[in-house]
Specification:
The complex is a heterotetramer of chains A (378), B (187), C (347) and D (190). Chain A has 378 residues and is of the alpha+beta class. Chain A is 48% helix and 13% strand. Chain A starts with 8 loop residues before the first strand and ends with a helix. Chain B is α+β, with helices and mostly antiparallel strands and 187 residues long. Chain B has a domain at 60-157: 2-Layer Sandwich (Alpha-Beta Plaits), CATH 3.30.70.3270. In chain B, β2 and β3 form a beta hairpin. Chain C is mainly alpha-helical and 347 residues long. Chain C has helices at 2-5, 7-11, 14-25, 30-67, 83-92, 104-120, 139-147, 150-160, 164-195, 200-209, 213-216, 218-231, 243-246, 256-281, 292-311, 319-346. In chain C, α6 runs parallel beside α14 (256-281), α12 packs antiparallel against α14 and α12 (218-231) packs antiparallel against α16. Chain C starts with a helix and ends with a helix. Classes of the chains: A alpha+beta (378), B alpha+beta (187), C mainly alpha (347), D mainly alpha (190). The interface between A and B is large, with 44 and 42 residues.
Amino acid sequence: MDTQIEPRTAGGEEIHTEEIMVNMGPQHPSTHGVLRAVLTLDGERITGVDCDIGYLHRCFEKVSEKLTYPQIIPYTDRADYLGGMTNELAFVLTVEQALGIEVPRRAQFIRVIMSELQRIHSHLIWFGTFGLDLGATTPFLYSFRDREVISDFFEEVSGARMMYNYMRVGGVRNDITAAWVEKVREFLRRFPAYLQEYDDLLTGNPILKARTRGIGRIDAATAIAYGASGPVLRASGVAYDLRKNDPYLVYDELSFEVATATEGDVLARYRVRLKEMRESARLVQQALEGLPEGDFLGKAPRIIKLPPGHYYGHVEGPRGEVGCYIVSDGDRRPYRLHWRAPSFVHLQLLPIMAKGHFMGDMVAIIGSIDIVMGEVDR
Amino acid sequence: MMAVWRQVAEGVTGVIKGHVVTLRNLFRRPVTYRYPQVRPELPVGTRGIPVLLSDEEGKLLCTACEVCARECPVQVIHISAHRDENKKKVLDEFDIDVSRCMFCGICAEVCAFGAIAMSDVYELADFEQDRLIYNKDRLAEIGRRRRGPIINYGIKTEGPRYGPEPAATAASPAPAAKTSPPEGAKP
Amino acid sequence: MALALAAPALAGGNLYTRAQQLFLDLGLPPWIFAILVAAVKVALILVFILLNVLFLIWLERKLGGHLQNRLGPVYTGPFGLLQTVADALKVLVKEDVIPAAADRWAFIVAPFIAFVPALMIWLVVPFGPGLQARDLSIGVLYVAALSGLIIPSLLTAGWSSGSKWSLLGAFRAGAQLISYEVPLLLAQLAVVVWAGSLSLNDIVRAQQQGTWFILLQPVGFIVYLIAAIAELNRTPFDLPEAESELVAGFNTEYSGFRFAIFFLTEYANLLTSSAIAATLFLGGWSGPWLPPFVWFLLKTYVFVFIAMWVRFTLPRLRVDQLMNFAWKLLLPVALLNVVVTGAIVAL
Amino acid sequence: MTTTLLVFLALAAVSLFAAWRVVTDPQIMHAGLWMGLSFVGVAGIFLLLTAEFLAGVQILIYVGAITTIILFGIMLSDIGEVKEEEPPLLSLPGRAKRPGTPVAVLAAGAFVLALILLYRDVAWTSLPAAGTLSTAPGAGTPAGGLWEGFSVKLIGQALFGEYALPAEAASVLLLAALLGALVLAAREEG
């Protein structure tokens, strides 16, 4: 179905109908937080999208300038509150890289396990809310049912279900126990059945396919030009994954596939994320197998002071490249910290994706880029 | 023509499959529970509000060194102390503004005396904002009331620990004690 | 329900004649008695609908909960049965907000334009043999006519709210209801052709003699099912109030009592559609062993269950797909069904 | 008979009042709603005359369809309220004058006259005679009116028997209108 607007002409002259301007948000059921999108509608067709952000601005970057490095770690959890582990990892890796600290192998494996569990965790939320955006309430509750299990894992190991404060410069805060490993193994055994249930419930549904195929299409060139990363980029056919392209931790020792699709539409992003969940489960499995004995926290200076200079570290978060850019003047506190938030980058693509589609597609598109407003505004 | 029929068949089976999934779940045990009556079993080491620990005689372990207040990222700990005749610090006030606390656990982590721990108290709603500033008596009271072991997490904590000693080594939390995922988590 | 069960005694049985006699003996004109009987009937039907609607709302939430691995309402009353009552009380004591931008007059009137016809439909629904307020010869047409009145109501509600979301919701509602009314009527028409009567009572009796029309009209039943769910604005056709797109569609600005009326109408219409489906396709009150009224209720709730099950399984269609589905698939199928039915009946 | 008369008077009053409001209400949306009410009143009168089919059709088409279309039209065109300085199209005596008023009154009078003349010679009594033609017992309950249960069948027989040609001609006309509308709408799409 062609969903582009064709100029409507009669007798050579363009016919204009009155356009409606609608404020979608800041309080709206499907903007995933407080996003205000000013839509220009021609009937139900979207002719323009203007995103207004900043409703959730908490001065994360500015506050960081007043905090010591260990104190910043809990703040990173709150930038993208659905990807705490990977955010902490991005920050901690940057600091370690600046200090030249060697992290024990066990800690590296634990970090991989946490990152991948976090990815599954985040994608499960995305799956549920995406279903919710499309009007199916049940996937949301099923995915939350399964996500709760991972939350329990995190709570057991870090003490919190969302704001973990788990990564440390030089390792992780707590060790994982054999009982915990066994529980995760048990979860991984059941996980394919969960995914099968999601597939039966939503993926195979003709309404979902009709709603998502060909919607919000973005080609590889545009995606790269806008700096997209993560599933949004990979769904456009670019097999770019930091875990492969710039391996950190022990990702180069583990085998996994980079999930890609070529269509670049909502359905492609949907498929990529579902595939990624499977791959992440595989990664956790491998990391659990190969988990070595040893320290979970290496040697780090008592007072962390970064040598003057610029440092950038990045990891593959659930939403894309999470980057941490630190400018240090040698103090215990960063001179400047910049957070590269994938959601913020992907939000710029929204007007391009949404133009010419229907009101209802707008919701599907926002859902498919999986924005977290906490990360956009920081 | 065949393609159209295949598409129709796919669509119909897709819809039917979805209905089978929901119907199957209709006969499963719900995973939710009646919250205030049925409570989740929290793992050891859950981070509720930070509390003050006391020794066996009920004396607070805190020495008013103010490390926690300094290290708190959100600056919610207020401590005041005076020196007694032996030039020893005596704790006068120890307030935590729970309404701003983000439960990161850094205070418990940095305390060299093991005087602060994260409790398993998480129901903190109150009608007055003033009541959300917990003074040292309230914090100590919660600390004495604790159920099960409180594990003072942290990297450098080696001070005396209140409650039964966990089985594992000093820094490892041994959270395997008595946790179980909420019932019905298995489909 | 117990009250409704007592209705045969009032309508056709001994009590009726005796009461009539009493009135004539008292020397009162017969029309007073007629009005009284009518009032009793109306009261019984109202009680029946309201009780059922209360139950339906609870059922929707409870069933939805269990379909989604949740408990559903549990706190108010046994199994949370009183949840609806509690909610109704809460809604009724809410502040009555009429937006400043609203057209006051139309805003107030709109819910009732839908509510009154939704109740009036029940005049012709046969609860059991002789258990019918009035057996109109145009029963099916009457139902169709009254259920169509919801469209002006929604349009008025959406327009008068003075909110863009409401307006968009109203446009969607209007377009959708008009589109799906056509296949809905055609599906009913096939049954009418087969039964040879528009009267709901006759249709039930025709099924009593033959088989249920769901066996003779499987296509018609499926078309009816789909179109009825669309008419009820339920998922997957709940575009007029799609919360993820339009906040709450035409009733975005409604609150308190008027919102309750809309809510009530929605569930009354669900009940109505289910009752009509039971009457047209599932043999109405006919059935062995159990009393006819119980059969009628059971069959009604079969349809209710299907509607709720569908709601908690499927995602929502998009507005253009909704229209395409109605006009390009459902309508031809329904038309074909009528033609084939006509041919079979004529032969 | 008193009940019927009372109900008739009430319905007639409602219809007339609604009709009067249709032409006087400054808010066009309200006028549309008044029109719907007026139609409902007329449907009630039909019901009173035991012309149930006609009543049903009146509601279905006039209220359900025509009013809806008009409301749709008003909503889409965003006319809103007629301004105070602009008098309504038809002004009542005493309000601001409109040159069209006498013409409108004349036209309406002529229409009423024509209707009276047309229907004066209709033999209303022929209906019961036709009723005897129908051998089907119908489904009327004992409580129903005399012709209840017959009217639908009669109308059906008349439409597809005696008046088949006019009925078909009318449907062809409607089809043509439908196609015309489609063509007009399609051209806009370019």
